[in-house]
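Subject: two folds for Thursday's group meeting

Dear M.,

Sorry for the delay on this. The cluster queue was jammed most of the week, so I only got both jobs back this morning. I'm pasting them in the order they finished. Each block is the input sequence followed by the predicted structure tokens. Could you check whether the formatting survives your parser before we put anything on slides? The first protein is the one we discussed after the seminar.
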Amino acid sequence: MYIADQWTDFEVIDTGDGEKLERWGSHLLRRPDPQIIWPIADESGQWLKADGRYFRSSSGGGKWEMRPDLPERWTISYGDLRFHIKPTSFKHTGLFPEQAVNWSWMMDKIRAAGRPIRVLNLFAYSGGATVAAASAGAEVCHVDAAKGMVQWAKENAQLSGLEDAPIRYITDDVFKFVQREQRRGRQYDAIIMDPPSYGRGPKGETWKLEESLYPFLQSCTTILSDNPLFMLINSYTTGLSPTVLHNLLHATMKQRYGGSISCGEIGLPITRSGLHLPCGILGRWES
């Protein structure tokens, strides 16, 4: 498991009974997590001091119950990177802190490359990877279908002092964008993606990860430069093995470019128990 254990502004304080108690800066949030199937050892102390708690609805979705003094949004830092945090209606906060292990890895890769690196970030959400890559000196193209998330990414870049960095923000369907880049002959040295388990395009196109990920990866290889640096896939699809990502990267990247593949779970340390919370999987190909 790849552990994001370098945070100071975030921590998973405790877990149990399907919930996690987290510190985001100076604010405590309680959120559900379906993988937490063990009991809370002691639901007292900080558990009872949470500034916000998300309750799932039996009919789907859910809602937050907030203390009145909790701000609508606030800022946390990871090294020199800064991010807006805002609890959303889908229990999320606009940031996946376990991804910090990928930010640090890609920043090291970009800085050590010794050449200009152009990065494409697909399904780019609020831009954690975009900010990390740009801070390491890369030219970045950030693509997400949600206009609000692209704006959030711009704000995170500004918070991190990267308002003048070479970042191109695109609100578009990622599949069509990749096809257009192929026709334009535009190439990238690294590609990052965090594809959903299921989704629909603007014209009703259906994305199902098990059926769509391999042909999409094939399309992405057509816009890679002759000397690519890395390919990074993140997945939160329940039940998907890291070995599946290894096999996909072997078929699309290693057989063509050589290099090496590393895959595994991604997680966060739990302060109170000393255990680790699984948060998804990753697959990395690197030259």
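Second protein, same layout:
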Amino acid sequence: MLPDLPRISRRHALEGSAAVLVVLGLLLWWLLPAGEPSPQGRVTFSTGVPTGVYQRYGALLEDALDREVPDVSISLRTSEGSQQNLARLASGEADFTIATADAVATYLRDGRPGASRLRGCARLYDDYAQLVVPRSSKVRSAQDLRGLRVGVGQEGSGVRLIANRLLTAAGLDPAQDVRPVSAGIDTMPKLLEDDRLDAFFWSGGLPTSAVQKLSERFPVRLVPLPEELVDRVHAQGGSSRYYRSAVMPADAYARAQEGRPVETVAVANLLVTTDRTDPAMAEAFTRTVIRSRDRIGREVHPAQLVDLRTAIYTDPLPLHEGARRYYLSVKP
């Protein structure tokens, strides 16, 4: 005969069942994916002119997103630049874009349609103003552009904004004292090479491939934009406070600079979206931008300067909630 087994009390049975449930719960927590589901859908990214840094950055970011967020399909759309990018974003024609901080501040100041809906995801890298002339040109300062044919960027570009401010700071009326030519970085180098321009302004990351290639086939140089000129830009008030004095390193365009650094003005670029964007999508975009810095930076050198410590500073825009979640998740 088998010995009598000890009777298990109801209380002990309940405690045992609870322990099993806890163990199962922990196991499920470990095995199942945590957090919100990965974002899905289609988004449009408004970039820039075909040979500009924005467009190349967008193409490489598209590749990174394919790996990081495979259920999101991204469509790139070229543009004239920052001002057109912001208008597209605000109207719903685009979901994400890159724009300079001065262009964003101007859009907000002017109360343009949808301005209150704009949100920042990350501070990226700085654009540097570049005044390019043939090496044989007599132009030594912005003041010397009077009466000349000057490429000032397309109407919807950030280049147009900064070119007009620099010309004004130099004591020139952008519409009357120079012969402004509305053109982008995709056409200005060829126009200068063919003697259909005397100079052109560009604002972009260093180096910009179109300027680099021009300097390798045609003798050009960069005209200094010294600190005192930047001080006069600041005196214009408003969004001009987003410009700062900077120096292009001697090797940015080795042939054009002939081993010499060049004084200039810089302005930050921002990754921008709107309050219509789902937080999970904004978080995924922000995370991908930060994580892909080195990979993108191997081909677009300005991207190497994207820094987690400064990316959170998207002034003059408030952070999107999704971007905020990302920065909180990686906060030490």
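Two things I noticed about the second structure. The two ends are 66 Å apart (CA to CA). Residues 290 and 308 are 7 Å apart (CA to CA).

Cheers,
T.
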